[in-house]
Amino acid sequence: MILLMPRIIFVTILVAMSSQSFALDVAIANSIESIMVPHGDKMIRVQRNQNNKAVIQGDFAKTSRNCPPFCIQPIIVGEGVKTIGTLELIYFMNDHLKDKSGLLIDARTSKWFNKGTIPGSINVPYTSLKASAGADEFAIEDSLILFGAEKADEEWDFFDAKTLVLWCNGPWCGQSPEAIRALLDLGYPAEKIRYFRGGMQSWLMLGFNVIKP
User: Is there a cis peptide before residue 68, judged by omega within 30 degrees of 0?
Assistant: First the structure.
């Protein structure tokens, strides 16, 4: 037993050193370096860019866009709907996506979605939820069923409906607010809806990875 102790101590030191050497310099929070989230049939690691000199490129580097249509959105987009930040989104992804009690909804049109999305998201454009934006009754019905709602006669039952986080391009983008208001009009419970107002712009600003469908 005495002869084995130095070896055990040595192995313990190596494990500790190994853990430290692989620690990320740019973590998500004090206690979170990265998370794994389901995306389709895969698990995707979500973490921040480790390059301290990285900057936003392309469309999301802009500060100014014509308004309308790209007008600044309010913090509150619907009565009873919670607006969340990026860290709250990470918690949602780590908890509700893994246990399948929630869905992360990219409410942008497919053109934007195909350029890259937040891992774990599914694309349900606001145009599939809002009649005045082109959604027919079948598109709306398919979307609500996807969200876990059930149709009883002509009424929708949202008892088992999932908690949703909807997002779009950023605080200047009206696509997810339009989707949220459409859901509220359809009777979706406000307490089961979250609005990630920062959207893709905040996601990229903090150096998080995106995934192409």
Answer: yes
The whole-angstrom separation of Cα 147 and Cα 170 is 23
Instruction: Give the CATH H-level superfamily of domain 35-205.
Output: Rhodanese-like domain (3.40.250.10)
Residue 129 · residue 182 · CB < 8 Å: yes
pTM of the model: 0.88
The DSSP annotation for 84-108 comes to: E-HHHHHHHIIIIITTTSEEEEE-S
Provide the sign of the torsion angle of the four alpha carbons 174, 105, 96, 149, taken in this order. Answer: positive
Spatial distance between the Cα atoms of 37 and 99, rounded to a whole number of angstroms: 10
Query: Alpha-carbon distance 135 to 183, whole Å?
Result: 12
- What is the Cα–Cα distance from 78 to 154, expressed in whole angstroms? 25
Mean predicted lDDT score pLDDT of the chain:
91
Q: What is the pLDDT of residues 10-21, one digit of tens each?
A: 333 333 433 444
Length of the chain, in residues: 213
pLDDT band at 190 (very low <50, low <70, confident <90, very high): very high
Q: How far apart are CA 113 and CA 121, in angstroms?
A: 10
Q: Which of 24, 154, 44, 26 is nearest to 98 (CA)?
A: 44
Instruction: Render pLDDT for 74-93 as a digit per residue (tens, 0 to 9).
Output: 999 999 999 999 999 999 99
Q: Cα(207)–Cα(142) distance, rounded to whole angstroms? A: 34
